[in-house]
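Annotators were shown the component list below and the corresponding predicted structure, then asked to write short factual statements about the assembly.
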Amino acid sequence: MMRISSLSATYPNGFNAVKKADLKLSSGEILALVGESGSGKSTLIYASLGLLPKGSSVSGKVFFDDIEFFALPKEGQRKIRWKKVSLVLQGTMSSFTPVLTIKRQFLEAMEEHLSLTPGEAMAKAVELLEEVGLEGNFLARYPHEMSGGQKQRCAIAMALCCDPDYLLADEPTTALDVITQAEIMNLLKGIAKRRNMGILMVTHDLALASSTADEICVMYQGCTIETERSDIIIKSPKQPHTIALVRSLSMMEE
Amino acid sequence: MSFWRLDTLFLAFLSLLALLTPLLGPVNEAVAPPFCKPLWLDHESGKPLSLNAKDNSLSFTWESKPPKTFSVKGTVTFEDVPKSASLLLAGPSKTYKLVDLAGYRNFDVDIDSRDVPLKLFLGLSPFVDVSSVIFSERGAYSLFIASDVKAHVDLNLNIYTGKWGIFGTDQRGRDVFRLTLAGIRISLLVGIFATLIASTLGMGLGLFAGYLGGLADSSIMRGVDVLLAIPTLPILVVISGVWGRGLWQIVFVLSIFSWMGTARVVRSLTLSLREAPYVEGLRALGAPTGYILARHFIPEAMPLLLAQMALGVPGAILAEAGLSFLGLSDPLMPSWGRMLHEAQVFGAFTSGAWWLIFPPGLGIASICLAFISVGRRFEEMADPRLREMAER
Amino acid sequence: MTEEVASVESLTLTFDKIDAPALADVSFCLNEGESLALVGESGSGKTSLLRLLLGLLRPTRGKVRLFGQPLDDVGGEELRRIRRKCSYIPQDPFGGLPPTLSPLQAVVEPLIVTRPNLKYEGTNKAKELLSDLGIEEALWNRKLVQGFSGGQRQRIMLARALITDPKLLLADEPTSMQDVSTRMDLINLLKVYLKNGMSMIFVTHDLLLAKAMTLRGIVLYRGRMCETGPTHLLLRDPLHPYTKALVSALPKLGKPIEVKVKRRPLPVGFKGCPYLALCPYGFDRCKDLPPMKQLSDARSVACFMGDTSQGT
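Structure shown to annotators:
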C-alpha cells in the first residue's frame, strides 16, 4: 500500500498548491485523483516523489509499503523511483528524446536502474512492448514516427521496465482521441490486475475516472476533500464540490 | 529584474563621460614631452613644475634630477623701449641668459629647451641637453628680467621631468588619459550607429522576406548570401582609399556588412509567426499586411532585436578598433584602435611602455563586455528558457 | 425562406507529396440560424475544412460557397466583405492569441480591423464579454505572453470571436481546455448568440458536447464523411461502425468502457473505406469505397453495413 499522509507543498514563488492531502493506494487497484485545473493534483504526485522544483517546500509523510520516502537519503530515494514507483508524465511528447530511437531510450532506462546484459535488456524490452500491445519492431522507431496513442503505450512500457509496485500516471490520456483513450484505460486496468500493481491516475475527467478506477479521490483547491469507491461516490457524493461535479456531468449526458 | 545593474550603470557612466568630452579641451595638442611615464609610475624624477611669473622675477627650488625639458612662454611688455634687457635664469652657482629682449617694446617669449637656436645662443653644441646643463645643480633658482626699463611680465615656466599625467603621454606628447576619455565617444558612436542602422535594415528586410515569401524572399536571401561572402576588410581598404578615412565612412561600411545576421534571424521568426493561427484569423478578417507586421510581428521581434543590437555593438566597436589598428582611420580621430596603432608603430610594445597600451585595450574590452552582458539580459527576456536558467 | 450561409460540394483537399487526401468528397449545407457539428479526431480533416470555408486554403476539387457566393469567383473587396461576417476560433489556444497584446486589446482588435470607428463602444463590449466569461478585471491589461492558462485563453478567444457579432461562427474545439464546471459558461454564452440568429459550425471530438451545442452532425474519419444526421440520433442510434466506436468509447458514469476496434495497417494508396484501419467488421467489399447512402430525410451513412438501421 502507498500512503500519503498530511502532505503539503509550496512552490518557490510562495504558492501553496497542496494543503494537508491524504491518500491511500492499494495494490492491484486503480485510484483516480480527480480535480479541476489548479486543484493541485499534479503537484501532489510530483511532491510525493520529491520531484518539485528546487526551492519548493514539502511537508508530511509518504510511505511506499512501510518505507518512509522522505526519511531516506537522496540515493535511497533514487532507488525507490523507477524500482518501486514509476511515473508516466503528462504529455507524451516530453517523455521521449526526439533524436533517439525508442530502443535507445528503453535500454538507457534499464541500464540505469537494473544491471542486465544488452541481450537480456532487449528481450525484456520486447516483452514489455508486447504487454502494452505494441509489436517488438517498434523499438526501431523514432518518437515522431509514432502516433500519440503509441507513444503513450511506450511510455507505460518504459515505466514498467523495473517491475515497480506502483505506477503514478499524470493525465495519461489528454490529447488522445476517445477510442485510443478507451484502449489505454483498459490497458491500465489489465496491468493493475495482472501485476498486482497499484495505479494512481490523475485526471480532470470524472466520467473517465468513474469507468476505469476502483476508487476516486476528489481534490479541490489543494485539499483532498473526498475519497470513496467510484460507484458509491457517483451515486451519493457528500462534499458540495463533488456534488457539483457529478451534477454537471449528468447534465451533459441527458 | 531591476534595470540598473553593474553593466547598465557602467554604460550610463561611459555615456556621461562621452557627453562631457568637449570639456576636455583640445585633445590632439601636445601638452608635454613625448613618452612621458605616468606620474605614479616613475619615482625617481622630480615632479613637473608649472609656474606663472607676474612680477619681475620668479623663484623656485629644484631638488631632484635634471628635468627632461623646460619651456618659457608668455609676453614681456616694457614701459618704454629698453636699450638693454634680457631674460635670465639663475641657478645656485651660475646664471644663464636665455634671450635678449633689447630694442622691442613688446616681446613674445617662446623658448623650449629643445630649440637649437637656444642652444647656440647659450654657446652649447646642438646635441647637448640644455636642461641637464642648466639644472645640473640642486638648489634655489630664479627666473627674472634684467633691464633698464620697468617691465610687465606674464610668463609661464613649465618644467617637464619625463612624468606626466595619469597615463603619461604618447609619441606626440598628447595626454593619454584625455585621449582615452575622448575615445569613449568614438567607440560609442561607431558601435551604436553602425548597429542601429544595420539592425533597422536587417529587421526591415527580414520582415519582408519572411512575410512575403516567394521572389522577394529569394532575392533578399541571395543578397544576404552575396554580402556574407564578401570580406569586409579589403572593401574597407578600398573605400578608405577612394573616399578617405573618417568616422562616417567606417560607420557606413560596418552597417552595410552587418545587417545580414539580423535579417536572417528576423526572417526565421517571421516565418514561424506567419503560421500562427491568430495571424490566419486576422487575415481572414481582412487585416492589411502592414497592420499585421507593425502591430504584431515587430513587437514580438523586439526582444530578439534588442538582443541582436546589444550583441552587435561589441562587434562594431571591435571592427572599428581593428580597422584603426591597421591604420585605416582618421589620424586626428582619438579612437582607441588608433591609439593602439600608434603605440605599435612607434615602438611602445618593444620599449615596454605598457601605459600606452593598457588604457585603450582595457577600454575596448570593458565596453564590449558591458554590452554583451546587457545583450545577454535581452536574450533572456526574449527566450523564456534562458530566463529560467538565469534564475536557478 | 432561410438563406444559405455556407455550403460545400464534393470538397476534396490533397496536399502536395502526401498520398492520402486531407478531405475527400465532403458535402453539406448550412442555413441561417443552424448549428452543425463536425465530429472527428485529429487527422479527420476538420480543421482543414474550416480553413477551406474561410478561403484560407484552395480546394483541390469541389466548391465552397459562403453566403451564397462561390469562393473561387469572388476576390478582393467582396471576399473581405463576406469574411467579415464570419469569426474563426482556432484549436490552439496558445497560438490563437497575439502574445504581445493584453486580453482587452486582443478582444477589441477584430473591431479595430473591421470597423475602426466603433472602437469606443467596442472597448465597453469587450469588457462585458470578458466578465461574462469569467476573466477578472485585474487581468484585462496584463500582456498575454505573461502567462494565462489554456482555459483562460480559450475564453478570451471566444470573446474575440463574438465581439464582431458574426453571422457565422467557425469554432474548432473551443472548450477542450475547460473544466467541466466552467464549460457551461461558454456553452451558455454560445447558446445566447445562437438564439439571436448566429449560425455555427462546431468542430469537436466529443459527441456529448456536440449534442449539447448542435442539432445536426457530420462524422468524419480521415477526411471522409462517415455518417450524417441529427446529433442526438448519432448518439442514440449510431449506424456507422466509427460512430458506434465513438459512442461506446465515451466514458459513462460508473460503467466500464468497452470499445470494439481492430487495428489494421492499410497499404499506401489504399482506395477503399478508410475506416478499415479500425473497423471490427471489415468485409472484402470494403476494399471499394462505400458510397454515401441517403437513408431518411436527414440521415446518411457511408458503409456497406448501414443498409439497414441496426438497433444497437
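Statements collected:
1. Residues 388-392 of chain B have pLDDT under 50 and may be disordered.
2. Residues 176-212 of chain B form the longest helix (37 residues).
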